[in-house]
Design a protein that fits this description.
heterodimer, A: 580 residues, alpha/beta, Rossmann fold, 3 domains, six-stranded parallel sheet, four-stranded mixed sheet, B: 232 residues, 8 helices, 12 strands, 34% helix
Chain lengths: 580, 232
């Protein structure tokens, strides 16, 4: 058995799947912002995807109840993963599968290659699987002389173009129809043709790939869920390509990670309700299939032999860590579709397999924080990802914790860390903080009085290199707040004295509502739970201890960083003590 | 088979898991209750099912009995192909249709290249998701569901279930004797893709058209109401 493969390097054919470029995120992002055509397409997606997702949520009914129920089941499963993983293995073996375990990507790749070689297979058809992107399986098999065809249209397109996915659900959405037309004309030797319409291109890929489906000896698919009670794996597609991979070749290999296990079939379909609506805004995907094993006596087609490869690749590390909640991820891509950073720079800037908020958490955990320290910083803490995450993962919290780890491991620049330490120390001395900010604001007010803004400021080049800094009005937020409070008290005092006369229905409001952030409610978008603590309290509690496992509402986590106003408040500042 | 990664993974998973007896785990799981299902578009099961099939870009027919099925099939085939050629799975329910009444004579077996229409008989129809369910076996060759241009499915109205939970229950009952099927397929629409600029195109790999014939005792208004609900 020869399953030794030379070490991977960026090939001339454009296969660069394992060359991680997460650490040059800023440069990647800068480059991405030069392409006007792609920017426009990203903007459109960022506009369109949230709308279809929201519409799907609304028509569902009890979406929040569903989200909480599925989350509880998932947490229960992770709490007892030893039990459920063993149960899945038992049932899968009983169903006639070969079950393999792989500690890391290389192990999985060599298991898959070995199976292919045992069957002298040369042609492989493959359904969409992020796990195999993670292990760079295609490269590995190709190096051993096998011909692997991606059959999901998006994956097929980027495979032909020698690119990596820019989105976990729509891997080729960064390419224009014109790009794809050019690609197909160059790659498919089919003579003169127009390919003017999208449907023409889809039709051409259909014809080309059907040939491969009919000739392939091995099919490889991923799994959206592994069902412990009956050993089935769930496969969700719209194209039906995964089902062709699972049914036509004589050998089927299912590649999945151990965290895909769910207890019951009904749990898998409950999760599906979240998945389809969050991913594409559909109420149901076209093909949702459950496969148990090889051909039965009464079957007339389908694989004679089936393998399930269960990959760890650091999931057990995540399971034992404070980042366990990340294992609740169902890979729907909603956090990408709602992330302002992702919308601005696109998926390739993230420099590895996973993108957007979930990618910024997963990439450091699956590779290393050293290799991807830029990613947890690619976040504005706006909290939209946590709001829409169907698995209710506190993504901004996890990103903040990773930044915390960066600081502790001294991966950020010493100057940055010094600044944070200074800020944290100040934030814990509110009197001094207020005195200093008051002085600073007042001096800036005096200095900038004439022009109204600064085109240059010491220590603020990051701001002033791009735009002017407006001169402050003279008083800090806290000063203004205290003044309003005093006014309020005076008014109450007066009212108490004039108690015999009814209170005047005056137009003046109390100062309190003014201090609250009054973000206009976005109907159908904000689905925060109701167990929120007041923002100040929650944030203060959060800065002291690491994340508690449960009971956090998405919106309370994001409050402090949304308005700069909060930054001056006593000991609750977003970038403060927890960043040390 | 690789034994050492297995024991290594299990050891690590066990260290991170909460120790408990199987019974206690089952009790905890049961205590979590069941997930809510999607709101049905109509209180009547058949209407809801038809409306969701339409929303999933399927087309529908409603007939009273088997004679209605073959008549509807004949019309569909004539409308699209000006012929009565058809491939049907080896399903006793399909074999028993009064084919001669409508002059349709299907070939029973697996779709071959160049044969555009396949007919299936659904194990179930699921109203919540507008899907039909088939299980693998000689009655349902994979090619018939996945490679034909037109996939037509007959659903008996007595085989409609409201949601996925009841679908699983019914699948368990229906397959109790034959054992776990190799594959269980929920199909809800023609094969589609949005991978090129997010534009929805039908017939990515599989059928471009998906036609459902609901057979049985269905309210007379169901079809019209379903069309109204689906807006098409």
């Amino acid at each position: 058995m020869t399953s030794t493969v030379p070490p991977l390097a960026g090939g001339s054919d454009g296969y660069t799947r394992l060359k991680q470029t997460s650490n040059t995120f800023l440069d990647n992002a800068h480059a991405a912002l030069q392409d006007a055509d792609r920017i426009q397409r990203r903007d459109l997606m960022a506009l369109f995807m949230p709308i279809v997702r929201d519409a799907a949520m609304d028509s569902f009914g009890q979406f929040e109840e569903l989200r909480q129920q599925v989350k509880q089941v998932k947490q229960h499963t992770l709490d007892h993963l030893d039990h459920y993983l063993a149960q899945f293995e038992r049932e899968a073996l009983q169903n006639g599968n070969h079950v393999h375990f792989a500690g890391n990507g290389d192990e999985m790749n060599s298991i898959v290659l070995e199976i292919c070689q045992q069957h002298s297979a040369r042609r492989i058809v493959k359904g969409k699987s992020m796990v195999t992107e993670e292990t760079a399986l295609n490269d590995y098999l190709k190096r051993a002389g096998l011909r692997v065809m991606e059959t999901d249209l998006g994956e097929y397109i980027i495979q032909q173009a020698g690119e990596t996915p820019s989105h976990i659900v729509g891997p080729a959405l960064h390419k224009s129809a014109a790009d794809i037309r050019k690609l197909f004309l160059a790659k498919h030797d089919l003579g003169e043709r127009d390919l003017a319409e999208t449907s023409d291109m889809v039709g051409e890929a259909r014809e080309v790939l059907r040939e491969h489906f009919l000739k392939a000896e091995v099919g490889i698919i991923g799994a959206n869920a592994l069902i412990a009670e009956n050993g089935y794996s769930m496969l969700v597609t719209n194209e039906g390509n995964g089902d062709l991979c699972a049914n036509l070749p004589n050998v089927l290999i299912v590649c999945a990670t151990i965290d895909r296990v769910l207890p019951r079939a009904t749990d898998a379909t409950a999760m599906l309700r979240l998945l389809v609506r969050s991913a594409t805004g559909q109420a149901q995907t076209c093909y949702t299939s459950f496969y148990s094993g090889p051909r039965r006596e009464q079957d007339i087609d389908s694989p004679l032999e089936t393998h399930i490869v269960l990959l760890d690749n650091r999931r057990t590390e995540i399971l034992a860590s404070d980042y366990r909640e990340m294992l609740q991820c169902i890979r729907c891509g909603a956090c990408l579709n709602h992330c302002p950073i992702y919308a601005a720079v696109g998926g390739h800037a993230y420099g590895w397999v996973y993108q957007g908020p979930m990618g910024s958490v997963l990439t450091p955990l699956l590779t290393s924080l050293e290799q991807s320290a830029a990613l947890p910083n690619a976040c504005t803490s706006c909290g939209r990802c946590a709001e829409v995450c169907p698995a209710d993962i506190p993504l901004p919290d996890l990103l903040r914790d990773l930044r915390h780890d960066e600081t502790r491991q001294k991966l950020s620049s010493p100057r940055w860390r010094l600044g944070l330490r200074l800020h944290a120390w100040l934030a814990r001395h509110p009197m001094l903080y207020h005195a200093l900010t008051g002085l600073g604001i007042f001096s800036l007010h005096l200095l900038g009085r004439r022009k109204g803004s600064f085109s240059r400021l010491p220590l603020a080049a990051g701001w002033t290199s791009q735009r002017d800094f407006p001169a402050p009005e003279g008083k800090t937020f806290m000063h203004q707040y205290a003044a309003m409070q005093r006014e309020d008290q005076a008014r109450e005092h007066k009212a108490a004295h004039a108690a015999e006369s009814p209170p005047a229905p005056g137009p003046e409001k109390s100062a309190r509502p003014k201090t609250k952030r009054t973000r206009p409610a976005r109907p159908g978008k904000t689905r925060a739970r109701t167990d929120q603590a007041p923002p100040g309290k929650a944030a203060a509690g959060k800065t002291r201890s690491r994340r508690p496992a449960q009971g956090r509402a998405p919106s309370e986590r994001i409050e402090p960083s949304l308005g700069t106003d909060w930054a001056g408040e006593a000991d609750n500042d977003a970038g403060g003590p927890d960043e040390r | 088979m690789s034994d050492s990664p297995r024991s290594h993974i299990f050891a690590r998973v066990q260290r991170a898991s909460r120790p408990a007896e199987a019974e206690a785990i089952q009790r905890d799981l049961d205590a979590l209750g069941t997930a809510p299902r999607a709101d049905l578009p109509a209180p009547d099961l058949a209407t809801a099912f038809l409306a969701n099939v339409l929303k999933n870009s399927g087309t529908v027919d409603c007939v009273a009995n088997r004679s209605g099925v073959v008549k509807a099939l004949a019309e569909y085939l004539y409308r699209h192909f000006r012929s009565h050629r058809l491939v049907a799975g080896n399903d006793p329910n399909l074999a028993a249709m009064p084919w001669r009444e409508a002059g349709v004579l299907p070939r029973f077996g697996t779709v071959e290249p160049g044969e555009p229409v396949a007919l299936s008989y659904a194990l179930l129809g699921v109203a919540e998701i507008g899907a039909i369910v088939t299980v693998t076996g000689k009655a349902n060759p994979a090619a018939n569901n996945l490679l034909s241009e037109h996939h037509i499915v007959v659903v008996d109205a007595t085989r409609l279930v409201p949601d996925m939970e009841s679908a699983w229950k019914r699948i368990g009952e229906e397959t109790a004797k034959s054992g776990r099927p190799r594959g269980i397929n929920f199909i809800a629409g023609p094969s589609s893709t949005g991978d090129i600029e997010g534009k929805l195109v039908y017939g990515a790999h599989g059928p471009r058209n998906w036609h459902v014939i609901l057979m049985g005792d269905v309210p007379a208004t169901a079809l019209a109401e379903a069309h109204t609900l689906a807006g098409r």
